[in-house]
Amino acid sequence: MSSRSGSAPSLSLGSLESAISSLKSCQSCINAGMDVAMNVAFDLVETQTKVEDENCMENVMLEYAALDRELNQYIWAVEGTVNQLKRDCPETIPDLQSMVQEKLSTVQSNNCDADLKKNDKFMQFKEQLRSLKQQYGLQEDSAVGETEDQVDEDMIVTQSQTNFICPITQLEMKKPVKNKVCGHTYEEEAIKKMIQSKHKRKKKAWCPKIGCSHSDVKLSDLVPNLALRREMESSNKRVSDSQSK
Ligand SMILES: [Zn+2]
Q: 185 CA to middle of ligand 1, Å?
């Protein structure tokens, strides 16, 4: 029977509590790592790199999500142990490590891989990746059950996308021309090339704008988009004005 039984557990509690706070600082490292993986994946889409490469980033994200879960569950187990000790005020110091371990294995026994995909950051990643791919006209890999909201997303992407970018070249347009039929605008040279090469093969040219169902774009339907040209000129002027100041 120890004479220090009253004060000793509180000392151990103190060390557990400081362990919790350093564990929590690990969480910000995991978050930062996930941000990096997300940005790499988005860059891959933007540079039109092969789709397998950003699938690899998806696996990295899942690994981070697994780390995140492990850490959270460990913190939960340590916190639970601390609370239990505070509540029970045991005479002798229990084996803290086995108490933590016991709680940890209980919670880990319910883990399943599907839960990792419900990680907040991972879902955010998938969401942004999907809208980026739509914006760049890439095919979403055959993900099941993820198509429901695509119409809404198309609209959001179209609205937020800058109007100066040609849907064919993905570059800022120099000579924007508007299709009188569906109202979409493209770089003059790019759309003309596209129509001519389709017509050579006796095919109709689809409107390259994502979400547009117009299936027969003709050269005669194209008119210079003067309003947009003016808008672009004044925007470029604003940029150069602010740079010269
Ligand atoms: Zn169109």
A: 8
